[in-house]
Design a protein that fits this description.
By secondary structure, the protein is mostly helical. 80% of the residues lie in helices and 2% in strands. The longest helix is centred in the last third of the chain and has 42 residues.
Length: 399
């Protein structure tokens, strides 16, 4: 008999248990951002090590996308069968181990192969802990989803800042091996709590054992796809900033490796601050106005960040972009989960993280045809598209 993902109603879960679950989930979100940022700030060095052109690097980065998309399609089913808590822990171990592989490669083909493994782990843990977080948000009955994504951004900011500090002193091999050790330590400390407790949900969302989930109506499926499209447009920008931001500062603006890493740190810091204030913002403005305003701000910021002729103006543009994008992805994923449960989370997360992981190779190909600054303006275009979609569907998605 297959193991079914069982959940307990909120009334059966102590408040201190919910607090512990929130703490450890926050730790896994932060770990994911920390590891990912540690990788992205070493991309210029690994690009040089492999002798890859911009197009070659974009092709290698496609390995991350391919691994993630395939894994995301399976992770929703794994979460339903074994539980999102267990799957989060498994993927955290895989992510921690795979981050050490890229600096061991010396060709584009080998780099693409190991990034396939890294992408599988990154995509899988993204769906798993977002599913766990949506259940916890529903149990707590507060719009705290941005706080989890704030932890991701804070982890990314620390990872990027640390990467910039050690870039001149540690090789990529030693740096990323250190990230492996940090990841395994965090998993060893936080994982047991997830393994001991099942996902909590409000009592009204618990189905009798053996009862199959109801098929979603066409309107609900359409809204989930719209939310996934918003997530895709905004996460595209996150992926592009992460993988190409440092290279833009070094190659186009002549910045040092440390300043180049600071560019992504500014973006991550602004995103962190925006997400830390996200709960209050959502309670005041609601989801639709938050998304429309955020998309417009991000679009303006990215035009400045990609086209400004000076380092300091570009740093300001990156910060404004991070502030604008801050709450769009968590709002889309949380709303999809509220509408359609775990399947909604899986759909929106897959589309969203697909945008994050497909964005960097797309930027690489566009940079080959035009220039990197011109390619980065696509982030502004898609942020504006996300705002337009949210505004156009405001009545259908009325809160």
């Amino acid at each position: 008999m297959p193991l079914i993902n069982k959940v307990r109603p909120h009334s059966a879960v102590r408040d201190d248990t919910l607090t512990r679950l929130r703490t450890v989930l926050t730790a896994f979100f932060a770990l994911d951002g920390f590891v990912f940022a540690g990788w992205v700030v070493r991309i210029p060095a690994i690009k040089q090590q492999t002798g890859a052109s911009a197009g070659d690097l974009g092709l290698a980065l496609l390995g991350v996308s391919a691994g993630a998309v395939v894994t995301m399609a399976l992770t929703g089913r794994l979460c339903r069968r074994y539980g999102s808590h267990r799957i989060t822990v498994v993927y955290a171990v895989l992510l921690s181990l795979s981050i050490a592989l890229p600096p061991l490669t010396h060709s584009v083909l080998a780099l693409g192969a190991v990034l396939l493994v890294f992408g599988a782990a990154y995509g899988g843990i993204s769906v798993a802990f977002n599913s766990a977080a949506v259940d916890l948000v529903a149990a707590l009955r507060r719009p705290i989803m941005p706080s989890f994504h704030a932890a991701f951004s804070l982890g990314a900011m620390v990872g990027a800042g640390l990467g910039g500090l050690v870039a001149a002193h540690l090789s990529p091999t030693h740096h990323l091996l250190g990230l492996t050790l940090v990841g395994l330590l965090v998993t060893a400390l936080a994982g047991p709590t997830l393994l001991r407790h099942e996902s909590p949900v409000p009592a009204e969302r618990v189905r009798p054992e053996g009862d199959r989930p109801r098929r979603l109506d066409r309107r609900t499926r359409g809204l989930v796809l719209v939310l996934g499209l918003i997530a895709l447009c905004t996460a595209y920008g996150e992926g592009a900033m992460a993988d190409w931001g440092a290279l833009h500062f070094q190659q186009d603006l002549g910045a040092s490796p440390g300043i180049a890493a600071a560019g992504y740190s500014c973006f991550a810091l602004a995103m962190t601050l925006g997400r830390l204030s996200g709960t209050a913002l959502l309670e005041r403005l609601g989801r639709t106005r938050t998304v429309v305003a955020g998309g417009a701000v991000a679009s303006a910021g990215m035009l400045l960040g990609s086209l400004a002729p000076s380092v300091w103006a570009a740093l300001l543009g990156f910060a404004v972009t991070g502030l604008g994008l801050a709450n769009l992805f968590p709002v889309a994923v949380e709303r999809a989960g509220a509408l359609a449960g775990p399947s909604g989370v899986a759909t929106a997360s897959t589309l969203g993280y697909g945008g994050m992981l497909l964005g960097p190779p797309a930027i690489g190909f566009m940079a080959e045809w035009t220039s990197l600054p011109a390619a980065l303006t696509s982030v502004a275009v898609l942020a504006a598209v996300a705002a337009a979609i949210a505004f156009a569907t405001r009545r259908s998605a009325r809160e």
